[in-house]
């Protein structure tokens, strides 16, 4: 029998290719919220650098709702979410054998943004936002002076999250009183960068975007202060003072109802199949404050992240929120609400 001989350089190259292929098999797939995306993107890049790319962290942003459609089928390892998981999604996950761990990650100050050329709008009431954004106003409330008579007789150009976004769900819930209740005649996108560009290009524009995307743009956008004069189910409230989006406003509970928690949902099946996923989450949560501050959001606390690491290790599954997109959850609620 003739023995095949290969040059040493060829054998070395084949071994290197095999090792590379094996390394590339160690992947973590994350999808969901475009709001949470900047945080997990930073964490993923840092972990890849730490592991010298031994683990590849793929981070996408289909939107919270679209991301959950993948997560509950077992197609992703981690779900970024800008709202809690809903009852229907919990049921679908159970039907597919997908157990999950819920990790409260950060708080966002959802921002009403306008063009810097807008000189007439400094603050807006929650009742005025409802009048502007609810489905019943579609095709009817279209001009600035229909909100306040002293504002211009000019068409409002509206920008906001698309229907597959958790930002859409949250904003609809706290402003109109129910999910999927926003008017349809506005420029919608699951990519917040598209919304930023639209608002920055039109002096008559108004939109709602995550605080991170607002803060990143500097002088291209201007934030509007919020006056809470009613709650989402229609109860009149004593009007608050106007409050601009900020970390301080979220922390002291004044920026309501647009302060909201952000989440990670982790597949237990993925944890069992990918031991390095636990390593990633431990690294992520131990350094969460750095990534969250860099992304212009508000961390919860070191205690919360330590608890989350223990939840991952103990496989403590379930949700704190009963399948509801609960509005106006405080930082302190994160500690006292048990998973179920």
CATH topology of the largest domain: D-Maltodextrin-Binding Protein, domain 2
Low-confidence stretches: 17-24
CATH level-4 homologous superfamily of the largest domain: Periplasmic binding protein-like II
| CA distance, first residue to last residue | 67 Å
Q: Look at the structure and give the mean pLDDT.
A: 89
CATH architecture term of the largest domain: 3-Layer(aba) Sandwich
- In N-to-C order, the SSE pattern is HEHEHEHEEEHEHEHEHEEHEHHHEHH
> Over all CA atoms, what is the radius of gyration?
23 Å
CATH top level label of the largest domain: Alpha Beta
Number of separate strands? 13
Number of helices: 14
The total tally of domains equals 2
Shape assignment = globular
Strand order of the largest sheet: 2-1-3-12-4-13
Helix content: 25-40%
What share of the residues does DSSP label as strand, in percent? 15-25%
Largest sheet: 6 strands, mixed
Helix/strand/pairing class, anyone? alpha/beta
